[in-house]
Design goal:
This protein is mainly beta. The chain has a single domain, classed as PHR domain (Jelly Rolls). It has one helix and 14 strands.
Length: 193
């Protein structure tokens, strides 16, 4: 039986979205979020793609703790996925990434989604959709880092993200990633379907 998930936190912006590069093999990008309800985080979905000629070998998605509103410490859970089959043009495709080890996230505690591009041919890049329109996500902010340790916060700019809890009756994640279009009714409604 397939695992089932519930959408907890999200920022879906609007049609006035920009695009920002995640560049080279050292730069990290992140989005802090604060769950309103304690749950076992099992997957995330991001609208992401890479430009033609800049295909990453893989991209790592992880969850970290925060301090002072910025990501800190090691990955608490992570998944690294190849980019075969990813979109190569704007606006990208909303793609889900399942963590092999679900992580309990505690209500009213801030965490960070962290994204890192891997590869060398020639300059691997991926684009994660970003928005600075009102209303803003008021439980976190966009983060950028040149090395994954020193982070810069950009208030009132948000990466588009969807954060899901693994339902308690199910098992652990399957370690997969790269599936397209989550099926949650609430998520479809947020797109206006």
């Amino acid at each position: 039986m397939a695992d089932t998930y519930t959408l907890y936190e999200k920022y879906d912006g609007d049609t006035n979205q920009d695009e920002v590069y995640l560049t080279n093999a050292t730069r990290h990008s992140g989005m802090t979020f604060t769950p309103a309800i304690t749950h076992n985080l099992g997957k995330i979905a991001l609208r992401i793609h890479y430009p033609l000629g800049n295909k990453p070998d893989s991209v790592k998605f992880s969850i970290r703790a925060t301090a002072g509103g910025k990501p800190t410490g090691p990955d608490l859970t992570a998944v690294t996925v190849p980019t075969d089959g990813w979109a190569t043009a704007s606006p990208g495709i909303l793609t889900e990434f399942i963590f092999p080890t679900p992580l309990e996230v505690v209500a009213d505690t801030m965490y960070a989604i962290v994204v890192k591009v891997n590869g060398t041919d020639p300059i691997p890049k991926a684009k994660w959709r970003m928005d600075n329109a009102i209303p803003h996500y008021d439980r976190g902010d966009r983060q950028t880092s040149g090395d994954g340790t020193i982070w810069n916060t950009t208030a009132n700019f948000e990466w588009e993200f969807y954060e899901y809890g693994l339902d308690a009756a199910e098992g652990g994640g399957d370690g997969g990633g790269g599936g397209n279009i989550p099926t949650d009714v609430a998520l479809f409604e947020s797109w206006g379907f």
